[in-house]
Design a protein that fits this description.
The chain is built from 24 helices and two strands. With 492 residues, the chain is an all-alpha fold. It has two domains: 88 residues, no CATH class; 272 residues, no CATH class. The chain has a two-stranded antiparallel ribbon with strand order 1-2. A hairpin with a 4-residue loop joins β1 and β2. α7 packs across α9, α15 packs parallel to α21 and α16 packs across α24. It starts with 55 loop residues before the first helix and ends in a 7-residue tail after the last helix.
Length: 492
């Protein structure tokens, strides 16, 4: 089942399975310490007697250095006049030099000189150390911006690992005002750094915990036509798979046998597939799917710190006011009915103009573009410049697909919450416990019929009163299996 629209395969395009169309519906902080700029030179210390005023406190200070009684010392000075007797000079307290702001210190490290036209890796590390310790990072961003050095910071902290930490730190620890200053500079660096910046904003900043897939391998068949052999189970990105030319030709001819080998691997009754698995294997499928590191098309931008699917799902679910178990259930259902062959056919077809469904949540190219499903990770300018092939590539990447699916689930739920009292009578009859108003709230408060109904609507044109009850039940079963896996802790 897919978020998809019907299509007639065109010449040269690899067809994908048909489904119904989807119609879119509608502190700032102050800078701590001194202002930026060059450090103030420390004044020379004056040890002359004339450096002291004739006050009791000055007299007591002089007495500590001279050993004389304050009253006698002052009297002797008055009697002697300007050319009085020589003696030990009294030290003048030197004022403390103003402490440099973090922005000023960062600026020194990233500034170029006549013979210094590079920011070394060591200097980049020093910059990050300063920013990590900064208690007012938003204020530092504003000061760098006012000094026209924020763009230089983004450009010159360029080692992949350092840049990843920088953009994620700025995404995670700045307020809205400062973040808006950073955003255009990150956009200049490229989509992968926008994605890292926004993952930081969403709290995804650490690598996946260690996970041994070995004990779970028996759950994944070696047959590329079998269920649960796509990217969600295997971790192999769809961009890394291909379709032999002979099979491409047969798919173009719509040869029935070839088409079947590259189509949905669960024919007919979905419940029969679930019944073929033990409850333990079903929960272990969920665990394998969730604990694996994401399969991404931009691995270099993570600098070896790739998160798990569970980490990304938690962030996307939180951002869209749904449970991570619910989002994971929708994705697991799609991946159970996905094969390695179908992954390959869908991606190759998308790069040749077919409107196929791609990735973990099986999001259709046109739906991703029409419903603006990448807006949580990419800026408007970047999204507007994406081609269909670019969109397919991003949907093949787990982090983009997870956020796209989460946003689409929230869009469909919100649309359902706005339906009138007499709308969708068939849906209400099929799901008697359906509470459309509950869709406005967090999914933890939804009746189970709300999950069934939303599962049906996810894979077809939303709220048209034409139902896919089997898929709705399939999604609910996946939701239950995710909960049974224990990957996501129960809320307190």
């Amino acid at each position: 089942m897919r978020i998809t629209s019907p299509r007639t395969p065109t010449s040269g395009a690899i067809p994908s399975r048909e489904s119904k169309d989807i119609t879119p519906n509608s502190t700032t902080g102050e800078v701590d310490g001194a202002q930026g700029g060059a450090p103030t030179p420390r004044p020379a210390t004056d040890f002359s007697v004339s450096g002291f005023e004739e006050t009791p406190s000055a007299a007591r200070t002089w007495a500590r250095f001279s050993g004389e009684t304050p009253g006698l010392t002052l009297a002797a000075e008055r009697a002697a006049g300007p050319a009085g007797p020589a003696g030990p000079a009294a030290p003048q307290p030197s004022p403390a030099a103003p402490q440099q702001s973090t922005a000023a210190r960062v600026q020194e490290l990233i500034s170029y000189g006549v013979t210094d036209w590079a920011v070394t890796s060591a200097e980049q590390s020093q910059v990050l150390s300063l920013l990590r310790a900064d208690r007012n990072l938003s204020g530092t961003v504003r000061e760098l911006q006012s000094n026209n050095m924020l763009g230089a910071l983004m450009d010159r902290v360029s080692d992949p690992g350092h840049r990843r930490e920088l953009v994620q730190m700025l995404g995670a620890r700045t307020d809205d005002s400062a973040r808006s200053m950073v955003t255009p500079h990150v956009a200049r660096l490229g989509a992968q750094w926008e994605m890292q910046f926004n993952l930081g904003r969403m709290g995804v900043t650490s690598a996946a915990p260690p996970f041994n897939v070995g004990p779970f391998r028996p759950l994944v068949s070696n047959n590329p036509e079998a269920p649960f052999t796509g990217a969600g189970a295997s971790g192999v990105n769809p961009t890394q798979r291909g379709v032999p030319l002979t099979d491409q030709f047969q798919l173009w001819r719509e040869d029935p046998a070839t088409t079947q080998r590259y189509s949905n691997p669960i024919p007919g009754d979905l419940s029969a597939y679930l019944n073929s698995l033990s409850p333990t294997d079903r929960s272990r499928q969920a665990e394998l799917f969730l604990r694996q590191p994401i399969s991404t098309v931009d691995p270099a931008s993570y600098a070896g710190r790739i998160p798990s699917r569970a980490q990304v799902i938690e962030a996307a679910a939180r951002h869209n006011n749904i449970e991570p178990e619910l989002l994971a259930g929708f994705l697991l259902a799609e991946q159970r009915d996905q094969s390695a062959n179908e992954d390959a056919k869908d991606y190759v077809g998308a790069t040749r103009g077919a409107n196929t469904s791609v990735g973990l949540g099986q999001v259709v190219i046109s739906t991703a573009r029409r419903n603006d499903l990448f807006q949580d990770l990419l800026s408007p300018g970047t999204r507007g410049a994406l081609s269909d092939t670019d969109t397919a590539r991003l949907l093949a990447s787990d982090e983009y697909n997870i956020f796209a699916a989460a946003r689409y689930i929230r869009q469909v739920a919100d649309e359902g919450s706005r339906l009138g009292a007499t709308a969708v009578p068939g849906t209400r009859s099929t799901y008697p416990d359906l509470d459309l108003g509950a869709y406005r709230r967090h999914s933890s408060s939804w009746p189970r019929d709300n999950i069934r109904a939303l599962g049906s609507e996810y894979t077809s044109r939303a709220w048209d009163d034409r139902l896919s009850t089997g898929w709705g039940n399939f999604v609910l079963s996946a939701y239950d299996d995710v909960r049974a896996s224990g990957v996501f802790p129960e809320p307190e």
